[in-house]
Amino acid sequence: MPPVKRFTVLLVFTALALFTLYRLKPPSSYKFAPHRPPLDDGRFHWETRSQLHPVSSMIPLPTGKKVEIPRIQFKFPPEDTEARKLREERQKAVKETFVHTWKGYKEHAWLRDELTPISGGNRSTFGGWAATLVDSLDTLWLMDLREDFAAAVAAVREIDFTNAESEKINVFETTIRYLGGFLAAYDVSGGRYPVLLEKAREVGEMLYAAFDTPNRMPVARWDWMGAALGNEQEALEKTLLAEIGSLSLEFTRLSQLTRDPKFFDAVQRITDQLAAQQMDTKLPGMWPIIVNARTGNFTDGGFFTVGAMADSAYEYFTKEYLLLNGRSPQYRDLYERFLPAANQSLLFRPLTPSNLPILFPGGLAISTPTDHTLSPHCEHLACFAGGMVALGSKVFDRPQDMEIAKGLVQGCVWAYESMPSGIMPESFEAVRCEATEDGAECRWNEGRWLGAVAKKVVEDEEERGVESTIGSVEEKARKRIEDYKLVPGMYDIGDRRYILRPETIESLFILYRLTGDPALPHTAWRMFQAIQKHTRTEFGHAALSDVTVPDPPKDDSMESFWTAETLKYFWLMFSESRVVGLDEWVFNTEAHPFRREG
Ligand SMILES: *[C@@H]1O[C@H](CO)[C@@H](O)[C@H](O)[C@H]1NC(C)=O
Ligand SMILES: *[C@@H]1O[C@H](CO)[C@@H](O)[C@H](O)[C@H]1NC(C)=O
Ligand SMILES: *[C@@H]1O[C@H](CO)[C@@H](O)[C@H](O)[C@H]1NC(C)=O
């Protein structure tokens, strides 16, 4: 570069930097001063931001004839009066719980991200854009709380996506909660509130800027102000599979509704990367929990799970196939290569006193091609898996998978019903039964349970460099069981909390709508009663810190998925089957239903 030109560049740069600094000085009246991009009219217009790395050709939404997808929901027979009465009573109780929570939110946390249910305060956890309000819009509509819905819709105009309360934005959480929340509220209310689509587009335009990287992979934990200022950005070397793999439904629905293909283009590029490398990982069919989005190489890494950090990436294959009405066989292929790998390598049956045929997905560590270690780790988060497998079984006509789905759902039900509180903990370790031809290893054997508990005691002692004075293996185990309140079949409970999570009722709901098994609503009702009783506070419902005791202590926290997901799925469990029918709707991973268009 000739010196004069270099000087000009320098000058322009300095001027720009000074200008930027000047513009960044916030007006004194400004609410969240530190994190505001430069503004002209008090707003940053994401849609006018020019792309540093524009795509050379846009991938359009797939067109063409839709593929015939088998019927998904069970054909429920007409209901008798008794059954209807019971169902409606239960549904009313769920709605009452929602109304109680909403009252607390309105009075103490309106337009804030979360209510603090014990202290009656509020806090900002997801950018400060009223996460609970946006996440609950479709629930308000479905429960027929029309006045509250109208008030919430009126308030969404006040949410300002040109500004955030945190420096880094989690692109995945913003997509599933906010973008998903607006889109579903727009869809369930039949398109009668255009502001909901406007807001969806506003969030979408903001998030689209996170994809402006050299390889078009999004920055998962995103410096949004840097992007607003036009800085260069690259995707992260360590990106969680779930955070890059579960954006497709929301961006696709946004393209369908706005007829702007760029959102679909953005997520389809991720799917193409996943598909190209699916069989090249250490566990062909699946991807490790951490992938390198900067290089776009998704094959390194040796830990595989369908639980935390991966979960919804797998859930979205079938759902995206549904949203596109079968027009992209790629999503079917992705699922059909994934499921057998997970079934073969991750699913295991725990040893239980009543020899239940239940399943959990564990975690698989692969260090060398021959060194595979399955950890019998069970997580509440992974309880969505039963619903996922049930749905895939219907959509892709894989009837043999329905048994797997039932095993997974019943595993989580077992974990709920084993606890003195009636609620499953966040995570625990189970004793795995190794199947033999005659099934003998799967029959309850107290000695094996005690052995696993004792082994854990010894490991802990080694880790801490102490040795207990208790002698025999059996004594060690019995003392640990008493101290740690372990229930038969579990040898450790790593995380005793219940944070108002939805995954088990989500899977129960899907399984019920697909099979019509009349026992499932009763199971759901027992779960609901336990949760409602233990979590209720003056202002709302609170997370629990230890579900292994009959009367669990509470934490001052209520995430937005309580009203977005948990209560919505409980309510739908007791609704008529035509309400949000699964042949017309598809749920995102935050329980937001999108309409499947023709
Ligand atoms: C949220 O909490 C702050 C104090 O932290 C309080 O000033 C404000 O009034 C609360 N918001 C609502 C809607 O109650
Ligand atoms: C990813 O990296 C591995 C080595 O770590 C290499 O063997 C493989 O070819 C790379 N794949 C792609 C698609 O770049
Ligand atoms: C799942 O894996 C088990 C054990 O490897 C096998 O017996 C079963 O047939 C598999 N089920 C399906 C549906 O592939």
TrEMBL record:
Supply the Pfam families for this chain: Glyco_hydro_47
Entry's Gene Ontology molecular function annotations: calcium ion binding; mannosyl-oligosaccharide 1,2-alpha-mannosidase activity
User: Which cellular components does GO assign to this protein?
Assistant: endoplasmic reticulum; membrane
Keywords, A to Z? Calcium, Disulfide bond, Glycosidase, Hydrolase, Metal-binding
Asked if the record carries the keyword Nucleus, the reply is no
Which cysteines share a disulfide bond?
383-412
| EC numbers, comma separated | 3.2.1.-
Q: Where is the active site?
A: 173 (proton donor), 311, 426 (proton donor), 503
Residues annotated to bind Ca(2+): 589
| Cofactor(s), by name | Ca(2+)
The pathway noted for it is:
Protein modification; protein glycosylation
The record's section on InterPro entries has: 6hp_glycosidase-like_sf (IPR012341), Glyco_hydro_47 (IPR001382), Glycosyl_Hydrolase_47 (IPR050749), Seven-hairpin_glycosidases (IPR036026)
Q: Which domain of life is it from?
A: Eukaryota
**UniProt KW Disulfide bond keyword:** yes
Supply one GO BP term.
carbohydrate metabolic process
What PANTHER family has UniProt attached to this entry?
ALPHA-1,2-MANNOSIDASE, MANNOSYL-OLIGOSACCHARIDE ALPHA-1,2-MANNOSIDASE-RELATED
Q: Which family does it belong to?
A: Belongs to the glycosyl hydrolase 47 family.
The protein depicted here goes by the name: alpha-1,2-Mannosidase
- This protein's species is Glutinoglossum americanum
